[in-house]
Design a protein that fits this description.
134 residues, alpha/beta, 23% helix, 3 helices, seven-stranded mixed barrel, Cytidine Deaminase, domain 2, 7 strands
Length: 134
């Protein structure tokens, strides 16, 4: 399954990462599910409420609940989440893997000038091919 995303949203994820540096940024990916994957149509930045924001992330639960509520009421679907690795690579960390829920959602990880997409499979994370669309 593929992920489609605009260059504008990629730029926004990079900007969020730079804004939060040296801490991890985090937020929600909104979009639509298609037969062969998802299309990311927007993002909702969220406060990183973890006790150690330079090393971990936790999306503000109020923002997360509001996004899921809006989706149930006909708003955009929550197709995944994003966060940055300020000093790492754009791959799931050991901590990311420990917190995996297996919900099949997409994770975007921003690091080292790149955005990589992963699917939370419940058996770890699988790389997802992304395609820039305008």
């Amino acid at each position: 399954m593929n992920v489609e995303v605009t260059s504008e949203l990629i730029a926004r994820l990079h900007a969020e990462s730079l804004r939060a540096h040296p801490e991890e940024c985090c937020g929600i990916l909104l979009g639509t599910r298609e037969n062969d994957g998802e299309r990311i149509a927007g993002v909702i930045p969220a406060a990183n409420v973890t006790a150690e924001p330079a090393r971990h992330f936790e999306i503000d639960p109020r923002v997360l609940l509001a996004a899921h509520r809006a989706a149930r009421q006909g708003g955009p679907h929550v197709i995944g989440y994003y966060h940055s690795h300020p000093t790492g690579d754009p791959v799931p960390s050991a901590t990311d893997c420990e917190h995996s829920t297996g919900d099949l959602r997409v994770w975007a990880i921003i690091a080292d000038g790149q955005v990589a997409f992963w699917r939370d499979t419940g058996k770890g994370f699988a790389a997802v091919t992304s395609r820039i669309v305008e």
